[in-house]
Amino acid sequence: MIKLMRFMKPYRGVLVVVVILAVAQALGNLYLPNLFADIVNNGIVKGDTGYIWRFGGLMLLVTMAGTIAAVVGIFYSSKVATGFGKIIRAKLFTRVEQFSLHEFDAVSTSSLITRTTNDTTQVQQVMIVMLNMMITAPITLVAGVILALNQDVGLSWILVVVIPVLVAAIIILMINAIPLFRAMQVKLDKLNLILDEGLTGVRVVRAFDRQRYEERRFDEANLELTAIAIRVNRLIASLMPIMMLCLNVSSVAILWFGANRINNGQMQLGALLAFLQYAMQILFALLMVSMMFIMLPRAAASADRINEVLDILPEINDPDQAKLAGEQRGYVEFQDVTFSYPGAEEPALSNISFSARPGEVTAIIGGTGSGKSTLVSLVPRFYDIDSGHILVDGVDVREMTQEHLRAKIGLVPQKTVLFSGTIAENIRYGKKDASDEEIRHAAEVSQASDFIEGMQDGFDAGIAQGGTNVSGGQKQRLSIARALVRRPEIYMFDDSFSALDFKTDARLRAALKKETRESTVFIVSQRVSTVMDADQIIVLEDGRIAGTGTHRELMKTCEVYHDIVSSQLSTEEIAEEIA
Prior knowledge:
Number of helices: 20
Largest sheet: 6 strands, mixed
Mean pLDDT: 83
Distance between the termini: 73 Å
Strand order of the largest sheet: 6-9-10-3-11-12
CATH superfamily of the largest domain: ABC transporter type 1, transmembrane domain
Helix content: 55-70%
CATH class of the largest domain: Mainly Alpha
């Protein structure tokens, strides 16, 4: 919690107002028993009606002022707490956006969502309680004890007995509750993970008739979370009877022993009533503190989880003195590049060297797990390489800013991602100021205009979350249009034609040739028909280059490529290609 307080700087002025109002409220509440004691001793006992009216009016004014201070204080404390929550959510989102793919692998998506929403809400709620009680309760507790002793020292032993009992109960509660609250947030992460997988994978679940399995899986996680929540609530619930028991026993004791002292002439009636009110204020202050400590363990656990994310330093950062590319446009060169995923025993790519130039199509082909997608993910610097150099326009990608580097690249990822919104908004995601004409042109080139025009609202047709209301081929074409509207120097198509039929694939590649004539194009594919017309084909096997050349050259010189072609084309087609 303390580490998160650094985000309170924008609300320093409002915090000063909240503190002043809280102090005023506490002092007003502490002043009232004194006034009441004076009214009883000097007004009621002596029968002085004028005295009663004067001091009664003063009590009314103090009460009204305290009420106004409390209302305004709650208003501003709520404003501070909600603003604080907004800042934390923004900081979390900004930090997560800076993560490399390695950091995303370290912290699950479901956990990041929980930390940004539920954990932030827990911290925000306890902040409201702290701002309302953290100042008022300690002042009331300390000053109340002093003023109660000022009224009568003889009854102070009651407070000496009761207060340690309440403090011990609060401490025992915290010791037992903190581990449970931490476990509760972890169980909530698991529940969110199962819920997310069940919703996003609903088609697979139904296709394999696994609804009952998913229901049992969810019920188990739900029951685990419920069991911990019940244990926590039992602990919290046990505190309230203890508090009320101490409160009522102390009231009875004060009245009993105070009445005896009044009877013996050792105490005035007004002093007894004031002492009783001070005792109630002291015990209620302890009650407020206990309520704060009930919420604090869970908020502390949530704050720790938030800090874990904020303390993660992204592995990929911009250099202090960034370099800009020169006059070259679209030149990509790999120089003896080796890359390993964190924790892997063997490198995913080893000693990769090749170059790609504008106006050329470089195709990358290989078996499953050969490192094709890994290779293209290194160009936009999604990961940092272990050794070697990757040059874009003659500058090492690690010496460029990420924004400058990625502005040169139009990527169509292997896993197509669309966002909720309209078709036009999804295409415009590649270039925020793209005109309607540019969007239509990109859709025509990507062969998406036919199915878009077939929709009722055309380019204004809605795309559901995850693009579930369009087919796989339609998603790929929209994703390609999103890259085309950007008009980048480097196009990267990572297995982006797999869901297209051969006719659409052929038309799309023909249209792309005209569109990308001055750009560098990378095509990752397992289809020979997609890559065979490329200017340069790079064949990968187990993370190494097995061959480089054109289709005809590789058919004669690369056994790995020949085996791939043989598995996809007939003997007659192979003979025709060689001829």
